[in-house]
Amino acid sequence: MIAEHTTNVVLRNMAGMFFKLLNIRSIMAVPLFVENQPIGFLDISRNTPFKKNDLTRFMHLAKHIALLLHHIQTEQYLKDSETRYRSFVMNFQGIAYRGNLDFTAVFFHGAVSEITGYTEDDFIRGMPRWDEIIYRTDLDQIKESIRRIATEPHFSCMREYRIIRKDGSTRWVREYARNICDNNGKPTRVEGSIYDITSEKTARDALLVSERKFRQFFEHQPTYCYMVSPGGLIIDVNNTALAALGYDKDELVGNPITMVYAPECHEKVKQLLHQWKTTGMVDDSELTIIAKDGSRRTILLSARAVKDASGRLLHSVSVQKDITEKKQTDEQIRSSLEEKKALLKEIHHRVKNNLQVISSLLNLQSSYINNEEYQHFFKESQDRIKTMVLIHEKLYQSENLAAVSPSDYINGIVHNLLDSYRVDSAEIALKSQIDDFPIDIDLAIPCGLIINELVSNALKHAFGEMRPNDRPRIHISLTRQEQQIILTVSDNGSGMPKIDLETTKTLGLQLVHSLAQQLNAKIEVNRKKGTRFTFTFQIKA
């Protein structure tokens, strides 16, 4: 308290010194009021004392000064407001209006010409009135809001409709309207703003059409379709999937997508969800789904990511193609093929056994024949049968029941003949050039019998007159050139006499000619430095 008193004394002393320095002996402060609100003070100082009537004169002066200041401030405020208003109107993309309840205009400002093709003055003069450019059908639709604006106090609304421009074209507009009421709450006028939304409406309608088409496609797809969130929750599911799974839509939406998959597939589903989120796609992944009743179906899952304009992941569109029946059919076909394969193997096995029985019977029968020539005939027949036995044995052992490896087959024929004629393989130089390609039974048997006849003929007749230092050679070649096969059998023996294969009386060569005709083969015989047979024929389509 003592410190505060001391401070006041010091301030008074300082003020006294200041006023004395300026030769000020009297000071008066008169407040300035506008509409009973203080706006400041009028400070008056002089070097003589104030008279008694000075206060009245100064208060009257303060009143005029306050009014003058208020007028200046108001003018500046109006000027600033006008500037802001003009800036707003210049940049306003719509129409600001005020009008009577009968649609006659009080003022129209903004993009009037751009939106309607008419001028502001056209509407002020009522040529036309605003309701006259509204589409008739649209005017009927907004009649209720027009009625309420005219009757309900302080009513406001937003409405969209079409207008017909001066040039006859159509524009969509959005209007925000509210009524102005008198002191009794009775609507007297309407004001608001109007905006051209033609582009927005066109885009929105196109989006609605696109959404409708997508929804129809989604709902009526014969495959199972889902929308799945990045968190793995079901957003939507189509009717086809619901029918297959036996669920209602509200039983699935919001639940994890793993709900529809078999437990053993859950880990794979999580991996595919991660793949979809990182790469944006999943293609033909086989999974098992479980229906509400516990039944299982096999599906192929494909999914694509749906993103917004910024690239943010929204959801997936996942498609499940039901392959249950196809899998069952494939399994039935596979089982049927396995059965037929086993049956065909058994047929080859039995044919081979039957041929071996025939060969054994011939061998047994030949033991009762003393004539060497007849025994030789029986032996040749046995060799031919062994050639046919060999092809059925190879087919029985092969996974491919319709074709064999020509290399194994041909080498088997030659070694059987060497054993049959008791020829040591070291005594004869055998050379084979066999391309590695499968040959079917219709070609293998004729080719094998041709090789059997020609090699048998070489072993019997070709090498009897060779010099001691010459080593017998037999060369067999089977090559493929696109759709053409070339079979060559040659030896370095004494050479075959010139004969006509079509008229020969030799059984073996008659058989060679017959088999060549069966293959539709062209035959070439070269007798230089031994004998070489070449057969050229086409692979059957």
Describe the protein in words.
- This protein has 541 residues and is α+β, with helices and mostly antiparallel strands.
- Helices cover 46% and strands 26% of the residues.
- It has 15 helices and 19 strands.
- The strands form 5 sheets. It has a 5-stranded antiparallel beta sheet. It has a 5-stranded antiparallel beta sheet with strand order 9-8-12-11-10, with helices on both faces. Strands 14-16-17-19-18 form a 5-stranded mixed beta sheet, covered by helices on one side.
- α12 runs antiparallel to α13 and α14 (441-462) packs antiparallel against α15 (507-518).
- The longest helix has 43 residues, at 324-366.
**Helix content percent band:** 40-55%
Report the strand count: 19
Which regions contain 5 or more consecutive residues with pLDDT less than 50?
1-12
Strand percentage lies at 25-35%
Q: What is the oligomeric state here?
A: single chain
Biggest sheet strand order reads 4-3-7-6-5
How does the helix and strand content classify structurally? alpha+beta
Largest sheet: 5 strands, antiparallel
Number of helices: 15
> On the 0-100 scale, what is the average pLDDT?
81
Over all CA atoms, what is the radius of gyration? Answer: 56 Å
Question: Shape, please?
Answer: rod-shaped
